[in-house]
Amino acid sequence: MAADRMRAMVLERPRQELQLRELPRPEPGAQQVLVRVQACGVCRTDLHVVDGDLTEPKLPLIPGHEIVGEVAEVGREVERFRGGERVGIPWLGWTCGACRFCRAGRENLCEEAAFTGYTLDGGYADYALADQRYCFPVAGTSGAAEAAPLLCAGLIGYRSLRMAGEAERLGLYGFGAAAHIVVQVARHEGRRVFAFTRPGDEDAKGFARELGAVWAGDSSEAAPEPLDAAIIFAPVGELVPAALRAVAPGGTVVCAGIHMSDIPSFPYEILWRERRLVSVANLTRRDGEEFLQLAPKVPIETSVEPLPLSEANEALARLREGRLRGAAVLLPGV
Ligand SMILES: [Zn+2]
Ligand SMILES: [Zn+2]
Q1: Cα of 267 from ligand 2 centre, angstroms
Q2: Do residues 135 and 200 lie in contact, with contact meaning Cβ atoms separated by under 8 Å?
Q3: pLDDT tens for each residue of 80-125
């Protein structure tokens, strides 16, 4: 392949398999860095984009928003990074900086925001472009593959944990990439974690216990004791009333995903007594900075299943079917 070309896994239409394509290698604009992708995590949001649950992707699209790589080229106004530095590229790719949300430090809610691997091309490729202002330095000695899931599963998990407040007894519904990171942060903070998995998933329960959950059971089971908060990672609306029933008065239920099936109606009494139901949307750059500083202190150890770039469809299929322990990560260099 010529030096000015790259491989990418491309979504041409929703609900179709990604196609391996050879494309021109992009050139950075003034504020952009061109990053040689070392690893790109496969997130449930990618599945929602490919499956058409999220309805406004750029097309054709290169998915992927958990990118770790090395800066290969910088635009003429880039001052934060130099060639050879390791950076992370997250979901939040650009914001307007001027709207009422941006001005109030809530850029995660910016209505003009652009998102990596959704409205901007992402990291299922040899190279990815990103605005330097939204990239993070990724230090540390761990490998690129192990760092990739921190960029979304970790970050959104962290924001969700903050939304859960000071909960000592924390329920996690869905024990995949995000939960396996959040349980480590939660334990580090002295919380007790109760893991709820899809019914019958003994592997996920064992995995949760290994990572320090004090209890692991089916999501159809009642919690063994009242919880102070619960985070729902699985995109399953039925879990909302289940989690509201599991939390004590004053408790919080956080919906962490970008998409969820319809929530069934439920009696007001399970919300009453100041229980709160909230969602988490996107991330701010501040979340990223805080979380990436915290990660080595925990220290967070991610469990990854590496796959070559060309096996992106297989990675998505495994995620859809729940056949993963931790996170799938694509390695374009392999
Ligand atoms: Zn804005
Ligand atoms: Zn994600």
Answers
A1: 32
A2: no
A3: 999 999 999 999 999 999 999 999 999 999 999 999 999 999 999 9
